[in-house]
Amino acid sequence: MNDASVTRRYRFSAAHRLHCDGLSTEDNRRIFGKCNKPNGHGHNYVLYVTVRGPIDSATGQATDTEALDRLVHEIVLQRFDHRDLNHDAGFAGRTTTGENLVLLVWDLLVSRIPIGRLEKIGLIETRDNYFEYDGLALAAGSAGA
Ligand code: NI
Question: Which pLDDT score is estimated for 137?
């Protein structure tokens, strides 16, 4: 069976502030720079969701993009768009970094993909920042490798 990957692109806007309660004011400023400024700031995020699966011999498709779009809108975009990420329960005790955001999106979607399996989450935060998570370390760990 030939597998192929399909990537869909989504957009949402959200606010955040990078800050660790356990660190001093100086350390927070040093580590997070301008992303630590009080009152937060916003990003226009671009989210990439990649699903991999066997190419269906009848349809020629590896997933159902309409079903995937509905899922991502319902589970991810409605949750984060025009919200303050620092107030999201998924970030309790975690900083709202791009790394933690791709991990959270992965966790929200991985067991719900309608056809195929989740292969990768990508996230553009700014012109110069791109984050990625593919769950491979997690999968390898659970397989006892
Ligand atoms: Ni930021």
Answer: 55
